[in-house]
Specification:
Helix content is about 25%, strand content about 30%. It is an alpha+beta fold and about 150 residues long. Keywords: Acyltransferase, Transferase.
Length: about 150
C-alpha cells in the first residue's frame, strides 16, 4: 500500500505494545497458555530484537521482529497485521523489510513458528518462500507448533 510506512521502534514503543497486545489476545483465543510463546519485555535481551511497526496513514496496523537464533539464523517474531488491514500487501512489506534487515546483518536465513490453527499465516508463509521444517528450540515438543524457514 502506498501510504504504508515501516518504522523501526524500541521494544517499549506504545504502538508496538498495542499491536502485540492484540496479537496475544488472538493467540490466547486459539491455544492454551503453555502453547503461546511471548516475548519477555522485562528481559534486557529484548533490546537486541529488531522491531518494526507498519503505519497506514499514520495509524499503526502491523508489526514484526527478528531475533537472533544463532550465527546463521534469526527468528521471525511478533508478526501481526490487524484483521481489517490484511490482504493489502502490508504483511508482505513487513516480512520483506525484516528479511532485508536479516540479510544486512549477515544472517543466512529466517526461521519461524506458527500454530496449526493459523491457516492464513501458514498459507502466507508458504506463498512467500518459507518451507516447513522440524520444530526447533522451545517449540520442539509443542503439538500445535508448525515451523518454517527461508534461506536469504
Amino acid at each position: 500500500m502506498e501510504n504504508t510506512e515501516l518504522v523501526q521502534v524500541a521494544p517499549e514503543h506504545p504502538d508496538l505494545a498495542l499491536l502485540i497486545a492484540q496479537l496475544d489476545r488472538y493467540l490466547f483465543e486459539l491455544y492454551p497458555p503453555e502453547e503461546v510463546y511471548l516475548v519477555d519485555f522485562e528481559d534486557p535481551y529484548v533490546n537486541e530484537i529488531y522491531f518494526i511497526v507498519a503505519y497506514l496513514d499514520s495509524r499503526p496496523v502491523g508489526c514484526g521482529a527478528i531475533k537472533k537464533l544463532d550465527e546463521e539464523y534469526v527468528e521471525l517474531k511478533r508478526f501481526f497485521v490487524e484483521p481489517e488491514y490484511r490482504n493489502k500487501g502490508i504483511a508482505w512489506r513487513i516480512v520483506e523489510r525484516l528479511e532485508e534487515e536479516a540479510a544486512r546483518q549477515g544472517y543466512q536465513g529466517i526461521k519461524l513458528e506458527t500454530g496449526d490453527q493459523q491457516t492464513e499465516a501458514i498459507g502466507f508463509y508458504k506463498k512467500n518462500g518459507y518451507g516447513e521444517i522440524d520444530r526447533f528450540g522451545e517449540y520442539a515438543d509443542c503439538p500445535s507448533s508448525l515451523c518454517f524457514e527461508k534461506r536469504l
